[in-house]
């Protein structure tokens, strides 16, 4: 059995299971995560945009396949490559061992008696392996199986993976299947002396897995060595690089240099400045939902602005006033958030429902027809909208995305995501409606990324409703709505101004408040865009 030792790095074990209340979120690793140490997620800094102005992905993840005999040093090679790469976006190490097939009772009995060949290609669920790897390569989420070596069985739980810029797959048969080989950008074979591999395997299995020397030798001679000669070694002809199992520093340096060059070419896009200058919105901005007839002729029919009543203008006056006390700001922010969420619910599906009134009269009304509804807050400026959402749907699923700007380029970076189960599970995401929450849309760089993340998870574009307080008419909303015409945007007001300015590097990422308009000393401040007249730094005013 090719059961390699787990990596000595901390897995991404802090993805909690969400209950129906955001306050009931456990920070403890789930059982699923604790058993998935073979598949590791490493993060050094946020992931830059992987899509263009049209909202479509422009670059796939870079996939490296590493094959070789059992105990040849595949995991060590993968670890050395990561160390040489240095500061890189999210990396996923995907192990072949997760894709052992589910066994029948008879097969389990043979496995526990060490009479089942785990080194034969038929022991691996190759179609599932290729499917999961294909999803990750095309920037989509996936849910990989979890295999228990102690039980010799695939478990019912799965491990959620998403957001990899680099994927490293390793396994003795990683280069065997043609469908897998077609997904690799770089194929590596680790070649090692047979005596050294046997010595490593004996030491590992005796020390770490409680096996006897006789048992290790019996299994090696019966299954491991024949599989290596017949299936593993022949795949070396498909490799782009043959790496020795020891003293391989030069090869590692060459591989790391090649991967860095490929990543630099794929991440050369500069999205924020281009979408910020996409041009102003057209003059007509509908305060009411458009009709099906008008949607056919109006390319901007997916923007919905609250009716500008005297009450709403009074609320906006309080919120825009920099002298407003924080307690009043919070009260009116929550009130406005409630109005926005109520308006947003008009775009959810409803079905007829017949009920009996207390006076015994039949009444035909409506009820929500959405199977799953959740709110996703873009941290932290989306937080002030959460209370309004819970006031309208008190048991709503909640999640969050941490998107901040790179201090040097201004490009958005996806730093972290905590998404509800209904989005992390592919079959549920297709039936999920999402209220995406952010305080405002200026350059729209964070909004672009947040919507792209939801689409990567399988949420239909038409199921996304973006809820925000303010939109800058001359900002990125123009490009945003063109890229995602089926997304509904609901806001309280549209401001004319989007001004380029400078803020201290330690200031809020929202970039809403005015700062020194003169060019500062390099390294002390950075360029941002602010909405005018705006509401200031909404997150800071609400929370501080």
Mind explaining what this structure looks like?
By secondary structure, the chain is of the alpha/beta class. The protein has two domains: 229 residues, P-loop containing nucleotide triphosphate hydrolases (Rossmann fold, 3-Layer(aba) Sandwich); 225 residues, Rossmann fold (3-Layer(aba) Sandwich). Helices cover 32% and strands 24% of the residues. The protein has 18 helices and 20 strands. Strands 9, 12, 13, 14, 15, 16, 17 and 18 form an eight-stranded mixed beta sheet that branches. Helix 16 links the parallel strand 16 and strand 17. Helix 2 crosses helix 8, helix 6 packs across helix 7 and helix 11 packs across helix 12. The longest helix is centred in the middle third of the chain and has 20 residues. It is elongated and about 85 Å long. The N and C termini lie far apart (57 Å). The N terminus is likely disordered.
Determine Rg (CA atoms, Å): 27 Å
Provide the CATH architecture of the largest domain.
Answer: 3-Layer(aba) Sandwich
* CATH superfamily grouping of the largest domain: P-loop containing nucleotide triphosphate hydrolases
Low-confidence stretches: 1-36, 281-297, 507-522
Quick one: biggest sheet?
A: 8 strands, mixed
Strand content: 15-25%
Number of domains in the coordinates? 2
* Fraction in helix: 25-40%
What is the CATH topology classification name of the largest domain?
Answer: Rossmann fold
Please state the overall shape, judged from the principal axes of the Cα atoms: elongated
